[in-house]
Amino acid sequence: MALGAASCGLLYLAGRRFISHGAGLAAGLMLALYPPAIFFDGLIQKAVLDTFLTALLLFMLARAQDARRLPGWFAAGAALGALALTRENMVLLLPVLAAWLLLRRGDRPGRFWAPAAVFAAGAALAMAPVGLRNYAVGGEFVLTSSQSGGAFYIGNNKDATGEFVPMIKGHQDLDSQDAARLAEEAVGKTLSPKEVSSYWLARAWEDIRARPGRWLGLLARKWLLVWNAYELPDTEDLYFYQDWSGLLRGLNRVFHFGVLCPLAAAGFVLTWRRRRELAPLYLLLLGTAASVALFFVYARYRFPLVPVLLLLAGGGLAQARAAFKEGRRRSLLAAGLAALLAAVFVNWPLFRKEPVLFVAYSNLGNVLCNQGKYSEAVTDFEEAIRLQPGYIEAYHNLGNCLLKQGRPAEALIRFGQALTLQPRLAEAHNSMGVALSDQGEYEKAAGHFREALRLRPDFAEAYYNFGNTLASQNKMEPAVNSFRQAAALRPDYAEAHHNLGLALMLQKKLGEAEEQFRLTISLAPGLAIAYQNLGYVLDGQGKHAEALEQYRKAQQLAPALERK
Question: What is the model's pTM?
Fold first, then answer.
């Protein structure tokens, strides 16, 4: 929230330098009242950094253009580099702005190589630590993340729509593990993150070359999505949150993207006389929109457009006031016409709000289920399924909630529905295994755990649950191996270490069991049963005084804990 507030101040300073005091004041105030900005400020997400760093970049560009000194261009480049680390597509703006610096004076372009060079150096310096860290950790010099290839494939493959469509049906997030697993299955060997990205990039270009006409149509659709008034949600939905926020609801009725764009269009017309000074704004606007359309569209991905649009809108408001006083009716008429055309364009109904809310209802169901409010959670999961009958995660989450309620038979039905829609969903196989194990159907459960691990060899929770099922069948040696796998994949997995200790204790391997229980206590100091079980193995080794100390600790943490 502090970053969001600072962004308003930076935008005011940028507007004052680019256009006028009035334009900056209007832009800063509008950002303070802009509902999506308030919404993103309230989330633990990097969108607030996008706002802050975009406003910082605008201020640095305005300042550098005024002062015409090399340190200013270096600082502007560093701001763009930092922005590219939070919103990777923005790295495409670096050559665009560097080229503008080289060519902004057509008569003597060579004179301006120095600002372009230091601008690029500033961006490189901001991004270099990440590239060096990636090289040190993974052996590959990658400036940001290694997800560009996967994201490009999602936005440009033969079945792409311009919105997010997961690589594995039922996984609603862009999961690098999914991308890596599918790529490695296709080529038959382990790939580095950079190789995974290259694989998906090549796959996307294959689809583009096969159907270039369809791809051009897809690009046009994505361009429309970028500029549409609807705030296309991913994991968090503005329209869902505003049902509980009078502030968001009230502001969003009168000031949203569909209002901002027409204001910016009018500002573009009214500030056209100053187009040379405002060229960086035009480049940022078009470059950002193009970089989003190149991949796929989410509201938060396009949000860096907003500070630029606000500057143009603020400039338009300030210039409209001056034009009215001076009687420049033609200018006002042209601005009004631009605003009208923009309003029709951006407010064209491409979406209906209600069907997109299914993710929000599923998220709310997860929160309520974790709070133990199972009946309310079930209602929300069922609403998510009603809105989107093919939403696999809602079936899976509903099944997990029913399982927590002690309703494994009903949970099995929901897991089965999820697997009917997506047989490759490892999480649903794991949950199905847990539900079957709870009903004593251990062999069937084991089959689902094996399938989950085939689909996801790094699935620590499936190893843990499989170990529990094997232990219930008194198959201690394979149970120990399964618990060891879970603990190796997730060294901080306290429950896996604890149950490994239990299995070792039952095998009379008291020394190894003691080591696992002590490790469990270091990871989860509040787990009373771990102290009690440590007491048992110490007792078994004749360390009675130490055992008594552990029993006392267990009783202090859980007075009702029954010794067996």
Answer: 0.83
